[in-house]
Design a protein that fits this description.
With 159 residues, the chain is an alpha/beta fold. Helix content is 47%, strand content 23%. Helix 1 crosses helix 5.
Length: 159
C-alpha cells in the first residue's frame, strides 16, 4: 500500500456497503499493487463487504461491470482496476476511450458509481510510478473516489 492514506471528502459509515472490484490479469504485477491498495483503503474505511472478480484485459471491464450490476442489485458501486500501456500502435487510444465511454454508460444505466482505476500510461515505468511509486497508488485513489461518490449518492437520496 502507498505510504499515505488519502482521506475522504466527508467521513461516512461504509460498513453496510457492498462494493465490487473488477480487475484485470493483464500486467498482473502492476494491477496486483492497485488491487492491494484499493482493498486496504476500503478496509481502512470499514467496508465489510468487498467482492472482486478478474477479467483478462481492460476492455473486458465494461462487460463485467454491466453483468455484475445486472445480476447483483445489492452491489452499490464498482472499482475498476487495470493497466493499458502505449505500445507501437495507437491501440491504447481506442481501448481507453471505449472503456471510459462504456463504464460511463453503465454507471448511468444503473445509477451507480464506477470508479476508473485504469492506468493509461506511455510506458511501464510510468505505470509503476502510479502503482505505489512516486505518483502514489491509483488503486487507493479509485477506492476513495468510489467512496466519495457513494457518500454523495446517500446525501442526495436523503434530500
Amino acid at each position: 500500500m502507498s505510504h499515505f492514506i488519502q482521506t475522504l471528502q466527508t467521513p461516512y459509515d461504509y460498513s453496510q456497503f457492498d462494493i465490487g472490484i473488477v480487475f484485470t490479469t493483464y500486467h498482473k504485477p502492476i494491477v496486483d499493487k492497485l488491487l492491494h491498495a484499493a482493498i486496504e483503503t476500503l478496509k481502512a474505511h470499514k467496508v465489510q463487504s468487498i467482492q472482486s472478480m478478474n477479467v483478462s484485459g481492460s476492455y473486458e471491464l465494461v462487460h463485467a461491470c454491466n453483468f455484475w450490476f445486472k445480476e447483483n442489485p445489492k452491489l452499490m458501486g464498482i472499482i475498476t482496476l487495470g493497466c493499458v500501456i502505449k505500445g507501437e500502435t495507437r491501440h491504447d487510444d481506442y481501448i481507453n476511450q471505449a472503456i471510459a465511454n462504456g463504464l460511463l454508460n453503465i454507471s448511468s444505466l444503473y445509477q451507480k458509481p464506477i470508479s476508473f482505476g485504469v492506468l493509461t500510461t506511455l510506458n511501464e515505468a510510468q505505470a509503476w510510478d502510479r502503482a505505489g511509486g512516486s505518483k502514489g497508488n491509483k488503486g487507493q485513489e479509485a477506492a476513495i473516489a468510489l467512496l466519495d461518490s457513494l457518500t454523495l449518492s446517500q446525501k442526495i437520496k436523503a434530500l
